[in-house]
UniProtKB/TrEMBL annotation:
InterPro entries recorded: MFS, MFS_dom, MFS_trans_sf, Sugar_transporter_CS
UniProt name for this protein: Organic cation transporter protein
Transmembrane segments: 15-35, 41-62, 74-96, 102-120, 225-247, 253-275, 287-304, 316-335, 380-400
PANTHER family per the UniProt record, alphabetical: SOLUTE CARRIER FAMILY 22 MEMBER (PTHR24064)
Subcellular localization: Membrane
Major facilitator superfamily (MFS) profile domain span: 1-405
Pfam family, one: MFS_1
Protein origin, superkingdom: Eukaryota
Keywords, ordered alphabetically: Membrane, Transmembrane, Transmembrane helix
Membrane topology value: Multi-pass membrane protein
Length: 462
C-alpha cells in the first residue's frame, strides 16, 4: 500500500485514481471466476487495496481544490456517500445471494468512477508543488471560466512565489548581470529578479527535497505524525470491532447492519453542524470521548439493570459508541489531511490508511474476544477493549494543533509554523473555541459572479 502511494504521487492524483480503480475492476470481476481459495484470497486482497487507495486518492484530489470554508461540506457529502454505499451493500447482500453476481454488482459502478476521473482535471496544488505552473494556471483558468469569474492574475503570481523555497544568492546591482545569469540558467531552479533588480532569489520547487521521512526529522511534526498514526489505528480498531460485533447482537444481521449504518448517517449530520463551529480538534475529541465512554458504560447494566434489559441497554450503548467513533473517524480524515503538506499528503494518507488496516484487522478478533473467553460479561468484553483504546487515543490527541479555517500547508515549514503559531496563542480543544484566520494563500476558486477585486480580497484572507 505504501509503495503504491509513493509511486503514484509522482504521477498525480488523477492518474492514480484511474490506475487503482482499473486494478479494482479487474480484481472484482476476476474474483467471480476463481474456484480455489489461495487465488481468491489474492484477488480479495487486491480488491481491498484498490478500494482503499481509490477512496484516498479521490479524497485528496477533491480536497486540494477547496478553500477552508468548503472542506467540511465536502467531507460530509463524501462520507454520506460512504454510508449510502453501506445501505446499498446491505440490500445487495440480502437480495443477491450468488457470489459471482455479487462481484459483478460491486465492481460495475467502479467503471463509472474511471470515466468521471478521466474527464476531471488534475489537482492544481499538485501542479504547483511540482513546479508545473503553466498547467496549474490552465486548470484554474478553466474552473474560473466555468464559474464565469475573472482569473486573478496578480494573485496567481503571488501564490507561485509564496509557495517556493527561497535561497539567498549574491546581490546583483546591474540588470546585465541578472540577464546573464538567466541566460546561463541555474541548475537548482528558476531565477526571479526583484523589482529593483538589486537582489536575485533562487527558488526551488516546494517539496523537491522533502520526503515522508523528513516529517520525522523535526520533533514537532514527528511526534504529531505518530499521534495521528495511533489515532487512525484506534479509530479503525473501534469502528470495525463494533461492525463485526453486529453478528453477536440479537436479531437479524441485515437489520442490525442497517441500524449501525443509520448511526453513521446521524453522526455525519451532527458533524456537519458542529465541526466548523467547534473546530476539527475539539469536535474530534468530543466524539471520540463519547464513543469511549459509551463502550466503557456497557459494564453498568450487568450490575444495575434488570436481567431482561441488559442486552437491550448494551445494544443501545453499542450504537452510541458506533455513532461516536464513526463521527470521529470522519473528522480525523479531514483533520489529518489538513495537517500534512501538499507534496506528502497522498503518501501520508497512505501511511495513515496502512496503520488503520492494522486496527481493522484486529477488529474481528476484538469482536470475538467475549466468545473466546466466555463468562458472564462476554457480551461487553469487546466494548470494554474499544473503550480503553478510545480513551488512550483521546488523551494523545490533546497536543494536536487545530487546522480549522487554515490554508493547506504546502511545505513542512508551513506545518511547523502552524504548530508554533498555536503553541503561542493556545490550541482550541474540547470545550473551547478560538477563531482562526487563514495564514497562507490557498488555491481559491472564485464563486460565480465574483469580481477580480473580491477574489483578491478572499485570497488575501480579508
Amino acid at each position: 500500500m505504501l509503495c503504491i502511494m509513493c509511486i503514484f504521487h509522482s504521477l498525480g492524483r488523477r492518474v492514480s485514481i484511474i490506475v487503482i480503480s482499473s486494478l479494482l475492476i479487474v480484481a472484482s470481476f476476476a474474483s467471480s471466476f476463481i474456484y480455489n481459495i489461495p487465488s481468491l484470497l489474492v484477488l480479495r486482497f487486491l480488491t481491498g487495496v484498490g478500494s482503499v487507495q481509490a477512496y484516498t486518492a479521490s479524497y485528496v484530489l477533491a480536497l486540494e481544490f477547496l478553500t477552508p470554508v468548503h472542506r467540511n461540506r465536502f467531507n460530509v457529502v463524501l462520507n454520506i456517500m460512504w454510508v449510502l454505499g453501506g445501505f446499498l451493500l446491505t440490500g445487495l447482500a440480502y437480495f443477491v445471494r450468488d457470489f459471482q453476481h455479487l462481484c459483478y454488482a460491486i465492481g460495475g459502478p467502479v467503471v463509472v468512477l474511471v470515466i468521471l476521473t478521466w474527464l476531471a482535471p488534475e489537482s492544481p496544488r499538485w501542479y504547483l508543488v511540482k513546479g508545473r505552473h503553466e498547467e496549474c494556471r490552465k486548470v484554474l483558468e478553466r474552473v474560473a471560466r466555468i464559474n464565469k469569474a475573472p482569473f486573478p492574475q496578480e494573485l496567481f503570481q503571488k501564490m507561485i512565489k509564496k509557495n517556493t523555497v527561497p535561497q539567498q544568492k549574491e546581490q546583483l546591482t546591474k540588470q546585465a548581470e541578472g540577464d546573464e545569469l538567466v541566460k546561463r540558467g541555474i541548475s537548482d531552479g528558476e531565477l526571479v529578479a526583484g523589482d529593483a533588480c538589486e537582489e536575485t532569489t533562487v527558488t526551488v520547487r516546494a517539496g523537491r527535497k522533502e520526503n515522508y521521512l523528513t516529517l520525522y526529522k523535526h520533533k514537532d511534526t514527528g511526534i504529531r505524525m505518530l499521534i495521528f498514526v495511533l489515532n487512525w489505528t484506534v479509530n479503525a480498531l473501534v469502528y470495525y470491532a463494533l461492525v463485526f460485533n453486529v453478528s453477536n447482537m440479537g436479531g437479524s444481521i441485515y437489520v442490525n447492519f442497517a441500524f449501525t449504518n443509520g448511526a453513521d448517517l446521524l453522526g455525519l449530520i451532527v458533524v456537519f453542524v458542529v465541526v466548523d463551529r467547534l473546530g476539527r480538534k475539539a469536535s474530534y475529541e468530543a466524539f471520540l470521548l463519547l464513543s469511549a465512554v459509551a463502550c466503557l458504560a456497557t459494564v453498568i447494566p450487568f450490575y444495575f439493570a434488570e436481567p431482561g434489559m441488559t442486552s437491550t441497554i448494551v445494544n443501545i450503548l453499542s450504537l452510541i459508541g458506533r455513532f461516536g467513533v464513526s463521527s470521529s473517524f470522519n473528522i480525523l480524515f479531514m483533520f489529518s489531511s489538513e495537517f500534512v503538506p501538499t507534496p506528502l499528503r497522498t503518501t501520508s494518507l497512505g501511511i495513515f490508511s496502512l496503520s488503520s488496516r492494522l486496527g481493522s484487522v484486529s477488529g474481528p478478533f476484538i469482536a470475538d474476544v467475549g466468545v473466546l473467553l466466555g463468562g458472564r460479561m462476554k457480551e461487553v468484553l469487546p466494548l470494554l477493549v474499544c473503550g480503553i483504546a478510545g480513551l488512550i487515543a483521546f488523551l494523545s490527541a490533546l497536543i494536536l494543533p487545530e487546522t480549522n479555517k487554515q490554508s493547506l500547508p504546502n511545505t513542512i515549514a508551513d506545518t511547523k509554523n502552524l504548530i508554533k503559531s498555536q503553541k503561542k496563542k493556545g490550541t482550541p480543544s474540547l470545550g473551547s473555541f478560538v477563531r482562526v484566520t487563514d495564514l497562507d494563500v490557498p488555491v481559491f476558486i472564485p464563486d460565480r459572479g465574483t469580481s477580480e477585486e473580491e477574489s483578491r480580497l478572499k485570497l488575501s484572507g480579508i
